[in-house]
Structure prediction request, 603 residues.
Amino acid sequence: MTQGRPISDALEHEVLREVRARGVVVWLDRDGVYNGFVDELVARHASGGLREPVVAFRGSFLEWLLALEHHAAGPEMEPLLVHMPGFNTDTIRATPALELYEAGKQFQKALETLVREAAHGKVRPDEIDAFLAGPGVTLEAADRWLAAGTSSAREGFAGTLEQIGIEDVAHKLLVADGAFLRRVKETPERAELEAFLARHTGMDQTWLRFCEPVLRGHPAERLADAFAAWVLTVEYANDLRRPPHLDALKPLTALPRPVLDLCRTLAQRLRQSARERYASLADETELLLYEELPHIQPDDLGEIDTFRTEESRILDATLDALQAEAWSSASRLALVREKAASFWLDLDRTGARRTEWEIARSAADLGEGIGAAESPLKDASHWEEVRDRYVAVAARIDAAHRRFGQLCADKLKPDLPHFVALTEVSGRVRRRYRQWADRLGRDFARFCGEHGFLPPAELQQRTLFDQVVQPLVGQGTVALFLVDALRFEMAAELADELRKLDGLVELTARFAELPTITSVGMNALAPLVKDGRMTLAAKSGFVGFRAGEYAVKAPADRARAMGMRSMNETAHVLDLATVCSDTVATLKRRIGGKKLVLVHSRE
Prediction:
């Protein structure tokens, strides 16, 4: 770097790096602040001092096009820097440069951004602010200013700090490196460290005075704790979606981009490498921000939970929304939490916090699903429409209710921190579902009253065997699973699991026989239909259906009826527990060469 042109040198390094990496680079310089700098590059290239060619527009497109001919011919264009002063991304489109602009890489650099980036770590952020706020800010003036501010080489401990680098110095402070802290116990070294931190991170005496009431230990330890609070608070303040409440935090949102990026990097590094230390520092910093954190609202927070209170506030707001039956709000908050990687959830070794979020998300999903489909069968006009609406909408709600119930049964325990609130939420959700299910039942009853209680033959349960199973018998072994209370939504979930195993799965829905009790539904699966009707097995009291001279009222009777219809012998019967526990070889021996196997389950 040239001693007298530190900012120009940084700019040259950046723009030429882009040219070498991207090929053609079109530099849009709306205010023409870099004309002199680019003219120097043109001259250097002409004299052989710069390898990369530079073409500068200086008012005449004809001259510009003639200069460009030597560099931009053909589809494979050589590296080239094209300077276009006076143009932005909109006005460049009305010029002959449009084709080159769209084919190349765009480059823009505000002078203020350049100064802040080049001066970062060399002078304090407040000195950068003062220079940029003054008169006559040009590239040449910025070079003179920064060169003067860094003219004397830093020696002694200050030089050592520069050699170590800000990230390593900062990490030593954040983890309270004993050897390093002992080295900065003395006032001169500590003062040099404070100046070093001010240049690189912006932490100044105002912040140190703000932290003083809560700091403990010897001066070096207090400085380390104040710096930790600075890093975490900078991350927090710039992750908020609104300005901080405390006046002391508001300047932190105006820090230069390199400072913000550095503080975020340091905080993330500490979270990853020293989890317990980070948690301790964050909790201590919360004491410093006791007037700020109570003002947090969930919508204020960004993607990072710097402090424990942030994660807690989002969960509290989610539970409040669930208790108010504001399902969409609760679902939105839970989705944000699911997508964001929360340090505090990962730190919870008991898993209680994650369990609470899991229950809250499940409750929100169910409540929101019901809200979006209050009456799925309302105004349905034919059987196919009733079936399709149930499959597409109502089955999803049934599935969400089942999953929520299973989750609460397994995980809603008294040792959860929000057990009482979650129990109340569970009661609200269950009542909500019961109201929805009752409405679904009434709408279906109304439909049956208007259209009859028996759907077309292709949608009837009683015709399933003859229409679906019977045609397959004789084409190898057919296994028919008769699982009590396996609702359509559960079958849909099973089908998804089978597809993951590359199984060929086809899932369709039929209407169950009414009333939908086991003695009717399971026995109606046997082929018992004659002229579209089934005959009760007894004149008084329901025990099953008649199949010729015998009654079908148990698994063995169904096996007999199905086997006699298919192959003139009783079908082979297994129970589901046996199928699940047997080895493949044992199961093959049990089945042998049977054409039809019935697998029963009432689990």
Observations:
- The chain is about 55% helix and 5% strand.
